[in-house]
Write a structure and sequence with these properties.
The structure is a single chain. By secondary structure, the protein is an alpha/beta fold. The protein has two domains: 4-69, no CATH class; 81-279, Vaccinia Virus protein VP39 (Rossmann fold). 45% of the residues lie in helices and 18% in strands. The strands form two sheets. Strands 6-2-1-7-8-10-9 form a seven-stranded mixed sheet. Strands 3-5-4 form a three-stranded antiparallel sheet.
Length: 283
């Protein structure tokens, strides 16, 4: 069992590197997740891994510890409601406001093994918006899950989890006994890149939609505020932000306001105020 002092050091390390807070009740995960890291780096115990972290650790060890301790839970069309909002409200609104031939850009933060961005790509394809192109940038700080996501290969369990059978048949090809591969037209719509939400990256550019779901729950309030306001700088004035069902901007930042009665969807506060003025004038 890992010593309390080591747990405290590891918690501080992960907070600095990723913003993630390890709750006391999750301490039992440390030994199970870091034992493979110890084996990989030729260290005898988890305590030895933590000791190495204290002494200017090599970058590969730091990366492996971070990747082992982060959560990569995801599935196709996870939670359903956000994708319905995207299909019935957000995409139609963007098409109405953007000229034909425009490129729509979506950011999927903490994309893990890629089910979320690929779900968005399939949804867009199903809408048949042939006068528009979609560019999805999917980010994560875990290079291993990004590599797997970019391959577009999933197990039967993964494709059956949340994915309608119609879309599985249409967009996947069985390429092994337990391997289903996404067709190239969907994979080409998603660009995977390593990115830590704690850092600024002007090269990301501007987006029409940002998905950052089930990420903020792992951060403390100051980190949530910093992440949300950093994302706001990458959003077009009329862009939409999707958060997880247990996440909110209220009491954290003044940068966003609720989006037109859509649960878990937020817009720039300035844009919301402008829309209210136009609505009032029209009335």
């Amino acid at each position: 069992m890992t010593e309390q002092a080591d747990l405290q050091f590891l918690a501080a390390f992960l907070k600095t590197e990723t913003g993630i807070i390890i709750a006391a009740e999750k301490a039992y995960l440390v030994d199970s997740r870091l034992t493979p890291v110890a084996n990989k780096h030729g260290l005898k115990t988890v305590a030895a891994v933590i000791d190495r972290l204290k002494l200017a650790p090599p970058a590969p060890l730091k990366r492996d510890v971070v990747e082992a301790m982060t959560t990569n839970e995801t599935s196709f069309f996870r939670d359903g409601t956000p994708f319905e909002a995207l299909k019935n409200h957000i995409f139609p609104g963007l098409v109405q406001r953007r000229a034909s031939g425009k490129r729509l850009r979506i950011l999927c933060a903490a994309a893990s093994t890629g089910q979320e961005p690929y779900s968005i790509a399939m949804l867009f394809q199903e809408l048949g918006l042939k006068d528009y192109t979609l560019d999805i940038v999917a980010t994560d700080l875990d290079s291993q899950v990004l590599a797997r996501a970019a391959s577009g290969v999933y197990t039967k369990f993964e494709v059956q989890r949340g994915l309608p059978i119609k879309l599985m048949v249409k967009y996947f090809t069985q390429t092994g006994l337990d391997a289903w591969t996404l067709k190239p037209e969907i994979r080409r719509m998603v660009n995977f890149r390593e990115y830590n939400l704690l850092n600024s990256d002007p090269a990301l550019g501007q987006f029409d939609v940002v998905f950052c779901r089930n990420v903020l729950i792992y951060f403390d309030p100051p980190t949530k505020k910093a992440v949300l306001e950093r994302l706001a700088r990458h959003m077009a004035p009329d862009a939409s932000l999707f958060l997880g069902g247990a996440e909110t901007v209220f009491g954290i930042t003044e940068a966003f306001a609720p989006g037109a009665g859509l649960r878990g969807v937020y817009v720039h506060k300035a844009a919301a105020a402008a829309a209210a003025v136009i609505t009032k004038a029209a009335a």
